[in-house]
Amino acid sequence: MSLGRDGKVSAATPGGGKRGRHGAAALNGAKRPGAGHDRLRGQLAAATAELDRLARMSQAASKSARIGSWELELPSRELVWSSELYRIHDVDPGTRVSLETALDVYPLEHRGRLERAIEQAIGTGQPFDLELPLVSLRGEVRWVRLTGEAEWAGATPVRLVGAMQNITEQRRRDHMLQRLARHDDLTGLPNRKLFRENLELALRSADTNGTNMALMLIDVDDFKTTNDTFGHDNGDRLLQEFARRLKLCFRVEDTIARIGGDEFAVVLPDSPQVEGLERLANRIRVEMAGGFEVEGESVEMSASLGIALYPDHAANATELLRQADIALYNSKEGGRGVHCFYSHAMGEQLALRHRTLTAIRGAIVAREIMPFYQPIVRASDYQPVGLEALVRWVRQEDQVVPPALFMAALTDPLLGTVIGEIMLTAVANQISTWQEEGNVVVPVSVNVASDQIAWPDFGPALLNLLAAYNVPPHLVSVEITEDVILSQDRQALVGALNALSAAGIKIDFDDFGTGYASLTHLKEYPVDRIKLDRSFISQLPHDRESLGIVRAVISLAHELNKEVIAEGVETAEQAALLADMGCDFLQGYLFSKPMPAAEAGEYLRRRPEPAVPVRAGEVVRLSGRRKARAEARRG
Predict the structure, then answer these.
(1) What is the value of pTM for the model shown?
(2) Which of 57, 212, 458, 486 has the most CB atoms within 10 Å of its CB?
(3) What's the total number of domains in the chain?
(4) Which of 383, 471, 380 minimizes the C-alpha distance to 425?
(5) Are 126 and 3 within one domain?
(6) SS in 3 state form for 395-455?
(7) Dihedral of CA 508/391/493/567: which sign?
(8) How many beta carbons lie within 10 A of that of residue 369, not counting itself?
(9) In a shared domain, residues 600 and 487
(10) Are 422 and 540 in a shared domain?
(11) By residue range, what is the domain housing residue 402?
(12) Handedness of CA 575, 580, 583, 584 (dihedral sign)
């Protein structure tokens, strides 16, 4: 039996020949063998039915798999298709199709590939397996997998035979999977993988063509707060709108990618010069300034940008990314909506920061971070009423490193919080020690960083710490700066400070007047004392503007029933002037440098004699001993 080209099955006799007149006579003649012959006819009928069933299943499977067969007779160039090939080409079944017509359905560049494969199969016997697009009679583009090989009669190829499968849906699925693997599913922008590929391509193109390119890293400012406030679904919608507006700012050839939660990157091949990039950064700022609507209200969003140029700033993709990231870091340090171009000075600054953070991590492990204490005195008689705990790094060779030299660690979110915990624990332990020794104990102020007070359990944790060391809450004051107020959620911060205040802990507003906090914060937050920044005090008594500011702040604070501490008092004339203006407390080198705990304890035990400040405008004359002591303290 055999399956013909038309899909029909023909049966053969046991001898191999077809049933002719004599075969029929043998089966149907007068001398029939009876029951045995009938069984044979039944078996043949059953076999024929099974073959027909298998043929139908084969045709159904071919149709389901969209696979058809084809033959090309080489001498006559006659082309024979199965029914599935007619369906793939949208041609009526049975239509005679020439080889030229069959080849014309392929786009020119793909037709060339197929013709070369056919010539190679005929010439060398090499089979082929190609994936090609074709255009059907209805004008639809379909992808097919086309296989073929030559059949030979001796050394002569006589025909090509092969199969064709419609793989259009498979290609579409593969394309979708590739897109998902290389694009961000939220914004539809290229993801980090595709971004990196396009960055490498842009670098190679710049090298080949001798052109420049730019990399821009973009970070949505304070997105975490917005996301926490309005929820993640609204946060996703904001990112989608941000991405849409971002695309309006760039060219078609630029790659705009989302490479992190709220981080975007743009590859600009053959980029404009610095002036053009400046205009582009300003356009992004304007595009984002329109406000974003969330649940009926307008939300302000801005972006910080870091820009690096190739080949000016880097030799490869990794370096370019690092330099753009350094520029972005400097932008975010400068505030919201800022853009920066990379400079070598930035790189050196970041390297110094890295060395500093590494050194401070080692100092924390070695227990070299500790508080020094500086007295706070009453302005009326210079009697100590408190201490401020100031962080110091005391190296093993007793070298004291001031905080200005490791400020990078204090502003680092993680290390700043760790150092804050060390300071609070050390202060609680020291107050407890002084109490056990029967020493005079005064309240101690501790500066709290914004990342530290942002912890939801900061208030309870501090109160538990004091209880563990048997320290009454009124012996500790918490100092907050304007940065803390401006960087925290107002409602949460008010709640945390109110809880501390209710427990008896005083709240000091440090560095008042140096930032952007408004006077309304004095009313909104439970502030007990305002600390005048040393930048105002250092100009006294000669700078009239500083004099006016100090006098106004003292008057305002007293109107609001708050006390005032002046920091950085270094001369007796400054002390007298501040006392005359009604300042409540003074702090500075005139009275004492910051001291280690042992010296601070001794200072409290001997308590300096009360002194009467000279009146403002009088000539200040100190005894030799007091003058020497004051000069030593200033040194």
Answers:
(1) 0.57
(2) 458
(3) 4
(4) 471
(5) no
(6) CCCCCEECHHHHHHHHHCHHHHHHHHHHHHHHHHHHHHHHHHCCCCCCCEEEECCHHHHCC
(7) positive
(8) 22
(9) yes
(10) yes
(11) 370-634
(12) positive
